[in-house]
TrEMBL record:
<dbReference type="InterPro" id="IPR016104">
    <property type="entry name" value="Pyr-dep_his/arg-deCO2ase"/>
</dbReference>
<dbReference type="GO" id="GO:0006547">
    <property type="term" value="P:L-histidine metabolic process"/>
</dbReference>
<feature type="modified residue" description="Pyruvic acid (Ser)">
    <location>
        <position position="83"/>
    </location>
</feature>
<protein>
    <recommendedName>
        <fullName>Histidine decarboxylase proenzyme</fullName>
    </recommendedName>
</protein>
<dbReference type="Pfam" id="PF02329">
    <property type="entry name" value="HDC"/>
</dbReference>
<keyword id="KW-0456">Lyase</keyword>
<feature type="site" description="Cleavage (non-hydrolytic)">
    <location>
        <begin position="82"/>
        <end position="83"/>
    </location>
</feature>
<dbReference type="InterPro" id="IPR016106">
    <property type="entry name" value="Pyr-dep_his-deCO2ase_N"/>
</dbReference>
<keyword id="KW-0865">Zymogen</keyword>
<keyword id="KW-0210">Decarboxylase</keyword>
<feature type="binding site">
    <location>
        <position position="82"/>
    </location>
    <ligand>
        <name>substrate</name>
    </ligand>
</feature>
<keyword id="KW-0670">Pyruvate</keyword>
<comment type="subunit">
    <text>The proenzyme is a hexamer of identical pi chains; each pi chain monomer is cleaved to form a small (or beta) chain and a large (or alpha) chain by non-hydrolytic self-catalysis.</text>
</comment>
<dbReference type="GO" id="GO:0004398">
    <property type="term" value="F:histidine decarboxylase activity"/>
</dbReference>
<feature type="binding site">
    <location>
        <position position="64"/>
    </location>
    <ligand>
        <name>substrate</name>
    </ligand>
</feature>
<dbReference type="InterPro" id="IPR003427">
    <property type="entry name" value="His_de-COase_proenz"/>
</dbReference>
<feature type="active site" description="Proton donor">
    <location>
        <position position="198"/>
    </location>
</feature>
Length: 311
C-alpha cells in the first residue's frame, strides 16, 4: 500500500477503483464498482470527415472519430466533470502503471507560483501514451470503456470547417483545429486536488508550422492559468504535464479536436495476478507496476512504439 493510501485510509478515504467486468473499464460512480475511488487519464485527439449539407451530423461524426482515434473511447455516454482529480483519484501513467518517461522527462520551462515556488512544465505525451497502451486503439482494443457506459470526463472540444474553394474564411471556418489538456500534480495530495485544464481552438492560416509554434506559446499561457488557479485555492503544484493534438483539414473537410480526462475503474483481469476478492491488493499491484512491466506481464506489445502514435 502506498504511503498516501495509509494516510487517506485513516480519514476513511479509499482510492480503490475496480470494475467487476472482464476486460472493460467502467465509469466512475457506475453501480457495482468496487471501492469509492477512480482512475484518470489524458486524451487529446482530432478527427476529420468530408463535410455534407448537415452540420449536426458532420459534428457528430467528426467528434466520434476523435473519440475513437488513438486511446479508444468510442461508443460511450460522456458526461462532464469540472476538472479535478483529488484524494480519491489515481492518475494513469503517474500513480498507476508509471511510465518511465515521466521520471526521465526534463522540464520545458518553469512558471512562478503564488507561494514563491517554481512549477516545472513537462510535455504530457508520457501520460497520453499510457492511456493508449491501457485502453488500446480502435483496431487493437484492450481495457477500453464498456460500450454504452457512462464515463465522467473533464472535456472540451471545437468543431470547424475548411471551405472547398480558395476564398477568405467566414465565421465557423478555419484551416485547422487543436486541443490541449494539462494535469497539474498537487504538492499535498492528502489535502489538495490535482487539476485538469482543457483548451481547444481553431487555426486560420494554411501553414501547419505556424500552428505548431502557436501551440508552443499556448503551453505558456496554460501554465500561467494553472498558477493563477492555484493561487485562487491557496494550492501549489509539484509539476504540470501539458499535451496537445491538432489536425489540418483538407479543402471541404470538417474537423473536431477534443480534450478528455476520463474518470474510470479498472477491470480485475487488467491486473496481473488480480482477484475480485482483494480489490485493495489489486490496486497495490497496479501502483507497483511500471507501464513496461505491465505490458510484459499482460503479454502486450507496445502500441505506441509499433504504431508510431501521433496526436
Amino acid at each position: 500500500m502506498a504511503k498516501i493510501d495509509e494516510i487517506l485510509n485513516q480519514e476513511g478515504i479509499d482510492r480503490i477503483a475496480i470494475s467487476p467486468y472482464k476486460q472493460y473499464s467502467r465509469g466512475y460512480m457506475e453501480p457495482g464498482n468496487l471501492g469509492t475511488g477512480y482512475v484518470t487519464g489524458l486524451k487529446v485527439d482530432a478527427g476529420t470527415r468530408v463535410k455534407t449539407d448537415d452540420e449536426v451530423l458532420d459534428g457528430i461524426v467528426s467528434y466520434d472519430r476523435a473519440e475513437c482515434k488513438n486511446a479508444y473511447m468510442g461508443q460511450i455516454n460522456m458526461t462532464t466533470a469540472s476538472s479535478f482529480t483529488g484524494v480519491q483519484g489515481h492518475i494513469l501513467g503517474y500513480d498507476l502503471l508509471r511510465n518511465p518517461a515521466v521520471d526521465n522527462a526534463k522540464p520545458l520551462f518553469e512558471e512562478d507560483q503564488w507561494d514563491g515556488s517554481k512549477l516545472p512544465i513537462y510535455d504530457g505525451k508520457p501520460l497520453q501514451d499510457t492511456l493508449v497502451e491501457y485502453f488500446g486503439t480502435s483496431d487493437n482494443r484492450r481495457h477500453y470503456p464498456a460500450p454504452g457506459s457512462f464515463i465522467v470526463c473533464a472535456n472540451k472540444g471545437v468543431t470547424s470547417y475548411r471551405p472547398k474553394e480558395d476564398r477568405p474564411l467566414r465565421t465557423g471556418e478555419s484551416y485547422g483545429v487543436w486541443s490541449a489538456i494539462a494535469i497539474s500534480i498537487a504538492k499535498d495530495p492528502v489535502h489538495n486536488s490535482s487539476m485538469f485544464i482543457e483548451d481547444a481552438g481553431t487555426w486560420n492560416t494554411p501553414n501547419e508550422d505556424d500552428l505548431n509554434e502557436f501551440l508552443d506559446r499556448r503551453r505558456r499561457a496554460i501554465a500561467l492559468s494553472i498558477a493563477q488557479c492555484g493561487q485562487d485555492a491557496n494550492t501549489s503544484f509539484a509539476s504540470s504535464w501539458i499535451g496537445f493534438a491538432h489536425v489540418m483539414m483538407k479543402p471541404g473537410e470538417i474537423g473536431n479536436a477534443i480534450t478528455v480526462g476520463p474518470y474510470f475503474s479498472i477491470p480485475v483481469d487488467a491486473v496481473p495476478g488480480g482477484s475480485i476478492l482483494t480489490p485493495d491488493v489489486d490496486m497495490n499491484i497496479m501502483e507497483q507496476l511500471t507501464l513496461p512491466k505491465w505490458l510484459e506481464k499482460m503479454k502486450y506489445q507496445s502500441i505506441v512504439k509499433d504504431q508510431h502514435i501521433e496526436y
